[in-house]
Design a protein that fits this description.
Elements: E1 3-8, H1 12-22, E2 27-33, H2 37-47, E3 50-52, H3 55-60, E4 66-69, H4 76-85, E5 89-92, H5 100-112, E6 117-119, H6 127-137, E7 144-152, H7 157-161, H8 169-172, H9 176-180, H10 182-192, E8 195-203, E9 214-221, E10 226-232, E11 242-247, E12 250-254, E13 259-264, H11 269-277, H12 296-311, H13 319-338, E14 342-343
Parallel strand pairs: 1-2, 1-4, 2-3, 4-5, 5-6, 7-10
Antiparallel strand pairs: 7-11, 8-9, 8-14, 9-10, 11-12, 12-13
The chain binds nicotinamide-adenine-dinucleotide (NAD).
The site of nicotinamide-adenine-dinucleotide (NAD) has 27 residues, from α1 and α4.
Length: 347
């Protein structure tokens, strides 16, 4: 059994989704809709599928059971909501939306229409992330003390100037933090839990854009640990991202798809296998180019949604999980804007 997918927005990341679907047994690409019909036609030709000129016609196609939302970030809600009302299950590129209010609206409409909502955070499916989370759940870190993320990436002037939405508050919802570092923000929360308080500085240091290209924040988490978040799109030529978690009984550091430190007081035979299998590689991920991301995570998440539709089991991550990163990001922006600490509500 396969689930038919339609892709809304036929730009850069749409290609990654289409390629991933071609390799999956439980998902099948039916076609593309883009408000720029020529873009939809180009991708449709490339993948031998249909291009739709009209959004209503696209939504009315019964072959399409699920849609992938790959429009600019601040336009996710405007297409997700009619798609959910048309009964389509939704795979929505990150960020789910650029404000908490818009995220909540998408979640509510999906619930009301009994459709699944899978917010793309492909890194959650990577092996290092799954191993670190399991170690955390097993208590191997002891008392957590530090959970930090560093992203010293590079994006050229043309990356922003060649787009009508990147680097804008209205459609990108922020800069290095909202667009690029969001995956690391999600992982900090996924592994170490919810934040309690943040304080941040941000600035636009090397690009002619509205939003920040550099930001530093300190975080206090609800479990009592602390951490730093350091993000940039100004650091030529661009370096691999790094996440590091330390507790009283262990420390782990990892990059894109590899682990650089895996040390626990309760060492186990499996630790040596993990270290050997996932040792450091030169994979810089998206550090210097947005296209340099591995397709495995997207394939896993598309397959997860298709399987959940076909079997009725819950998703690996749902809309409420996708909202958590937006909560931390918008709290960080609020602190940078006001020059004061931001305290998160307990919900
Ligand atoms: N998961 C990841 O690692 C990852 C990587 C890159 C981009 N993204 C996300 O994917 C989304 C798209 O990014 P991109 O780089 O592909 O952008 P892009 O500019 O290359 O493509 C966006 C496409 O959407 C179309 N579009 C705009 N408004 C539309 C509307 N209302 N209806 C239909 N089509 C519309 C545009 O014509 C364009 O073809 C963004 O939200 C971005 O954050 C995620």
């Amino acid at each position: 059994m396969t689930v038919g997918f339609g892709i809304i927005g036929a730009g850069m990341i749409a290609e990654m989704h289409a390629r991933s679907m071609a390799d999956l047994k439980n998902a099948k690409l039916i076609g593309f809709y883009d408000k720029n019909f020529a873009a939809a036609q180009k991708r449709a030709e490339e993948f031998g599928v249909k291009a739709y000129e009209n959004f209503d016609e696209f939504l009315a196609d019964p072959q399409i059971r699920a849609v992938t939302i790959a429009t600019p970030s601040g336009m996710h809600g405007s297409v997700a909501i009619p798609a959910a009302r048309a009964g389509k299950h939704i795979l929505c590129e990150k960020p789910l939306e650029i404000t908490l209010e818009k995220c909540d609206e998408i979640i509510r409409v999906c619930d009301e229409n009994n459709v699944l909502l899978s917010p793309v955070f492909q890194s959650r499916f990577s092996k290092p992330v799954q191993l670190v989370r399991r170690a955390m759940q097993e208590g191997r870190f002891g008392r957590m003390v530090l959970a930090s993320a560093q992203m010293r990436w590079y994006r050229s002037a043309s990356y922003y100037s060649g787009s009508n939405w990147r680097g804008t508050w209205d459609l990108d919802g922020g800069g290095a933090l909202m667009n690029q570092a969001i995956h690391m923000i999600d992982l900090l929360i996924h592994i170490n839990g919810a934040p309690e308080e943040v304080f941040a500085f941000s600035g636009t240091l090397t690009h002619s854009i509205e939003v920040e290209d550099n930001l530093c924040a300190t975080v206090k988490y609800r479990n009592g640990s602390f951490g730093t978040i350091e993000v940039s799109t100004s650091c030529a030529p661009g370096f691999p991202r790094r996440l590091e978690f330390s507790g009283s009984c262990g420390t782990v550091a990892f990059g894109e798809n590899y682990i650089t430190r895996w040390d626990f007081a309760d060492s186990r035979p499996e630790d040596e296998i993990i270290k050997k299998e996932l040792q450091h590689t030169s994979d810089a991920g998206g550090g210097s180019s947005p296209m340099n991301i591995n397709a495995n995570g997207h394939s896993s998440q598309i397959s997860d949604l298709a399987d959940a539709i076909l079997t009725g089991r819950p998703l690996y991550l749902d809309g409420k999980e996708g909202r958590r990163a937006i909560e931390l990001i918008t709290g960080i922006y609020e602190s940078a804007r006001t020059g004061k600490p931001y305290f998160f509500k307990r919900g």
